Amino acid sequence: GQQVMQIPQYQHVQEGEDFTTYCNSSTTLSNIQWYKQRPGGHPVFLIQLVKSGEVKKQKRLTFQFGEAKKNSSLHITATQTTDVGTYFCAPPWGSSNTGKLIFGQGTTLQVKP
Amino acid sequence: DAGITQSPRHKVTETGTPVTLRCHQTENHRYMYWYRQDPGHGLRLIHYSYGVKDTDKGEVSDGYSVSRSKTEDFLLTLESATSSQTSVYFCAISRTDDNSPLHFGNGTRLTVT
Prior knowledge:
The structure holds two protein chains of two kinds. Chain A is mainly beta. Chain A has strands at residues 4-7, 10-14, 19-25, 32-37, 44-49, 55-58, 61-65, 71-76, 85-90, 107-112. In chain A, the strands form two sheets. A five-stranded antiparallel β-sheet of chain A has the order 1-3-8-7-6, with no helix packed on it. Chain A has a five-stranded mixed β-sheet with strand order 2-10-9-4-5, with no helix packed on it. In chain A, strand 6 (55-58) and strand 7 (61-65) form a beta hairpin. Chain A is globular, with a radius of gyration of 14 Å. The N and C termini of chain A lie far apart (41 Å). By secondary structure, chain B is mainly beta. Chain B is globular, with a radius of gyration of 13 Å.
């Protein structure tokens, strides 16, 4: 079945260091969304990527969609303690358009001040 | 945050008892989803709804049923709770089926003893 692998599962960084999480799919994706979940909170939408090779930036966050549309990455420059949380990639699930998403296992980021 | 209310927020129940979780939205969104979140598994789709009385199964639907008699309410029922259904349950809504972002409720923490 459809699978999405996200690596690493955990990442501990010193404040100010960079961080990257990778999302890999076994199938070609029409698009991919990214979410952030703070400890004890609920997932919150960050961004959606649609085009092959697309790169989008939100302040210190850079999102990329691979040329083959099978992988994606989120890079955070100069992490801050406010970046702590779990980051999920989420492509559509299945072929029908019902808004269903399949979520990667997530990468949990810890930032040491 | 989108107007999504999940109830109850916490529940402890015994194995074999029925449990119903409620998701209420004030956004008049057509699509509603139930996900469960467990360590190491990310979020997994249980059931979803694409309209009143229109529901379908997700990735992990065994042991769960849903109902949607009104646009604003989506109920998740565990007919006979098992310990493997101990989890955090999130309801989500989306405006359309064209890969609109999901907006999540605050979650229900369910413990089955």
